[in-house]
Amino acid sequence: MNPYISMIIPAYNEEVKIKDTLESIKGIKEINEIIVVDDGSTDKTTKIASEVNSEKIVVLKLDKNRGKGYALNYGLKIAMKNADIIGFLDADLGRSANDVKKLINPILNDEADVVIAKFPPAKKKGGLGFVKGLAKDSVFEMTGVELDATLSGQRLFKKEVLEKFKEIPFGYGVEVGMTIDILKNGYKIKEVLVNMTHNETGRDLKGFIHRGKQYYHIKRVLKQKKKEWR
């Protein structure tokens, strides 16, 4: 019997990309369910997602914007009922979301408990690499495992891994915190190179503010994990 795979896609004001994202993954035969959680969008995200023709797709709309962590947890409550494998995908991947199929086989073949998508280098310069470096160094410091894609939100999990978490942590440090906990619990993580692309953070003021928040959240998560795992 083939495992049941659910994909959770949190979306906030993604009317431009959500259709292409869904169209590109609905035909992947291994995926049984696609849960879109509209995180209180003010545009037509829910309408456009609902119009994509597929019995696999479930579209949920939150009453207001609550953040990516909340949206993921909301989707997980549904996915955990049936799924053996659960994936997280960003809504802005567009047609490149189809590359998620590269993450599926390593889990099906029991090569890993968690598979993370490793993106190609960014096309435009965003931060100065200090956030990515902090994330990588933090995971290595805590676990002795060297990973390059610690900030990637495109991930597939065996259900048993997610059952270790009462809920997905909130904030920009979520991926780093989860990665540390997963490795500390003895699970294996595999990174897979993909050709996915999404909205990149630039070198403008908004971009630097975003990087600053990420840096602060990761430092806070690292401090918390040091206490938990000492």
From TrEMBL:
Span of domain Glycosyltransferase 2-like: 6-130
Mention any Pfam family matching this sequence.
Glycos_transf_2
> Please, which domain of life does this record's source organism belong to?
Bacteria
Q: Which InterPro entries does this one have? A: Glyco_trans_2-like (IPR001173), Glycosyltransferase_2 (IPR050256), Nucleotide-diphossugar_trans (IPR029044)
Mind telling me which Gene3D superfamilies this protein's record contains? Spore Coat Polysaccharide Biosynthesis Protein SpsA, Chain A
Looking up PANTHER family in the UniProt record yields: RFBJ PROTEIN (PTHR48090:SF7), UNDECAPRENYL-PHOSPHATE 4-DEOXY-4-FORMAMIDO-L-ARABINOSE TRANSFERASE-RELATED (PTHR48090)
Q: What is this protein called?
A: Glycosyltransferase family 2 protein
Q: Which organism is it from?
A: Romboutsia faecis
List the top taxonomic levels of the source: Bacteria, Bacillati, Bacillota, Clostridia, Peptostreptococcales
